[in-house]
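User: Structure tokens for both sequences below?

Assistant:
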Amino acid sequence: MTEERVEMPDLGAIPKGGLKANFWNYIQRVTGQRSLKKYIWQGFIFTLLSGLPTIAGAVIRGKAYKTVLGDVGSSCLIEEGVRFYVPQKIFLGDRVFIGRNTYVDANHIESEIRLEDDVYIGRYCMLRAGVGSIHIGPKVTIGSFCFLRGSGGLKIGENSMLSQGVQIITANHVFRDRSMPIKFQGTRYGKVNIGEDVWVGTSTIILADVSIGNGSVIGAGSIVTKDIPKYSLALGAPARVMSKR
């Protein structure tokens, strides 16, 4: 079952209170706390190191970011331009690779993003925990340009693969009341659980309250709105099981 609750809005227009209030909201947004000291230290490390080129830069970041992330395992590689928000709630296992210009955003101090050993994140991805969590199991591969939202809770099992451009959406807007703008009606959240050894094809969209069983294959361009049993071949919009492996 889904659970309705209101997620904290993204930082947008300048709030009431003016520039000062907006400044402190921004600090809390990127650090998870209203701590100027933490903001300066975090900003110093990321500004100094995020643009270093070549494999040498990737290695240095993998070591130096231990001072700001929740945990960083051994032999991690982080390419140029990777951005971390609320970094103390982001945990990397051993030999994690994060591609260029990817955003890894825990979003809230109560949330977390956890990447287990040997996870590969392609370039230009966005991982946003929201008010939930993202847990990516060992040896998972995430292709470039993927968007993963964890507000309702997202878990991906060992050895699974997401091709380029996959979107996982664990939240939907409530829109029952015609008298109120949709943006103020709250958000409905639902977990997404992707099992082990799952292959999700290019440009697939997976919506909230969905489980995909172990060993399943989802065809490119599908929209997954319901559970997929294990070892199924599913495709279409909405996705339907066409056969078994």
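Moving on to the next sequence.
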Amino acid sequence: MNIKFKENFFWWLMVALFLIAISMWSAVFAAGGNLLKVYFLDIGQGDAAFVELPNKYQILIDGGPGREVINQLAAIMPFYDRSIDLIVATHPQADHISGLVEVLKRYQVGEVMMSNAEGKIEDFVELKKLSAGKVVTPVAGRVYDLQGGASLKVLWPKAGLDFGGLADVNEASIVLQLGYGSQDFLFTGDLGTITEPEVSWSDIEVLKVAHHGSRYATSREFLGKTRPEIAVISVAKNNSYGHPTPETLGGLKDVGAEVWQTAISGTVAIFSDGERSWVKK
């Protein structure tokens, strides 16, 4: 084999491999092009959920207690993707918002949804500084059209709520219902049984269980109204709170929900084509 032939052979080989790679990736994107993808991230004792719509609109709901959210995002987002359209800080507690500080430093963020509930922790003060000019205030009943058959509805807090009068900031948690086709995902923050009766609930398919499976949230009355088919509990293994509690697990079992825990399964990925939703194993 002469040198000229070798050069031509390897050049055509590289072209062929490039075309094969393009074909393969095109097939992958085509296969998943109509899917809503929701990842309940394994970030320890806290909450963080990453949502990607079929049109590539991305939402991060909470960021957990530390920097682990950065590692988790790197595992599911392409290395070249350095932007997130919407970040939601459900309420000002460290196990939900501390990781968002690092996300805002490393990613280009379009908007940040947070309520007027105040927090005294240092990370919340920093979060507010980094979010300046990007803040969207949630109001119950408002619906955001995310295009392509997807929408985001705010269920809580209601307008005019006196956050200063709340004994527990968990009750100020932003509650969102993400709809795609006939499928609904409910993100509850740490909302407890005190406030549950004040919210207008409807049947859903996927539930992010409130307050990591605490006994003070996810009442049987709430479950009777929402009837989730899949429930995800974001929780750390052997945590000191005893989460999730037998009361919550029992209620979920009674409504026939398929229960997943990040402490057991790691990051839980749920995909939906708008007609059904399933856990990607």
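User: Anything stand out in the second?

Assistant: The mean pLDDT is 91.
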